[in-house]
Amino acid sequence: MAIWLDETSKILVQGITGSEGRKHTARMLRAGSKIVGGTNPKKAGTDVEGVPVFATVAETIEKTGADVSVVYVPPAGTKAAVIEAIDAGIPLVVVITEGVPVHDTTDFWAYAKSRGNSTRIIGPNCPGIISPGRSNAGIIPADITPQGRIGLVSKSGTLTYQMMYELRDFGFSTCVGIGGDPVIGTTHIDALAAFETDPDTDAIVMIGEIGGDAEERAAAYIDEHVTKPVVGYVAGFTAPEGKTMGHAGAIVSGSSGTALAKKEALEKAGVRVGKTPSETARLMADVVRSL
């Protein structure tokens, strides 16, 4: 098992003919992902890496049965691309694009909600999702870790990769990079809920960062609903107040959104929180060995 993405997933690439779309289509294909089509209305009828290019998402779904879209469209076109995917009824959209205006993300998130949340959005400004050895949708390197029984949900792309590497001897069921923008689609809580019900995930690593209250809300959810062991890490203990750090959503205002407050909330919910990524990995290794 894996959450949201597995070896049966049929992936289409919105923006497949652009430089990023081409590069990562090739990478995903090498990883064994089933890339069945891509979209560019001006280049329909051509192909990229042997993958056919169609005019629209709806046409791609009709011709190939695609059920996942990965978006590599530039920021100005991302909103239209995601809304097109929602209108076509695709179950999962992974938005890799960085720099999407927050009001655009708010608009397409609200649009998905108005359509009954039948389309799950991961991102934007995220590395995507990988179920090692099964499928890869996004920019996460496919050769860091083998398949295993740890689930990972993270705001940070680079910390996702580091955690995968540090725990490569154990492996992962699915790793989800949710992105660090102020407004995102899939949240820590969504991933925690999915991992809780996944029979092949035994333990969960959750990586957060300063800014907002997502980690505090996740802590409350863990306390009430998650029975599997969770280990956490919060980036940003030394971040200066009032300065955006890395992600648009990683900003501390006064006492709100600090790493310490998030760490305390998680520990109160029974989550073991590491002071560094490496310590967090060691804590998870100890948990897995004890299962």
Automatic annotation (TrEMBL):
Family to which the UniProt record says this protein belongs: Belongs to the succinate/malate CoA ligase alpha subunit family.
Binding site for substrate: Y161
Family matches, as PROSITE patterns: SUCCINYL_COA_LIG_1 (PS01216), SUCCINYL_COA_LIG_2 (PS00399)
Reaction(s) the record says it catalyses: succinate + ATP + CoA = succinyl-CoA + ADP + phosphate; GTP + succinate + CoA = succinyl-CoA + GDP + phosphate
Binding-site residues for CoA, renumbered to this chain: T17, G18, S19, E20, K43, I96, T97, E98
EC number: 6.2.1.5
The name this protein goes by in its record: Succinate--CoA ligase [ADP-forming] subunit alpha
Subunit (UniProt): Heterotetramer of two alpha and two beta subunits.
CoA-binding domain location: 4-100
Keyword vocabulary terms for this entry: Ligase, Nucleotide-binding, Tricarboxylic acid cycle
Functional summary from the UniProt entry: Succinyl-CoA synthetase functions in the citric acid cycle (TCA), coupling the hydrolysis of succinyl-CoA to the synthesis of either ATP or GTP and thus represents the only step of substrate-level phosphorylation in the TCA. The alpha subunit of the enzyme binds the substrates coenzyme A and phosphate, while succinate binding and nucleotide specificity is provided by the beta subunit.
Top-level division of the source organism's lineage: Bacteria
List of catalytic residues: H247
Taxonomy of the source species: Bacteria, Bacillati, Actinomycetota, Actinomycetes, Frankiales
Pathway info: Carbohydrate metabolism; tricarboxylic acid cycle; succinate from succinyl-CoA (ligase route): step 1/1
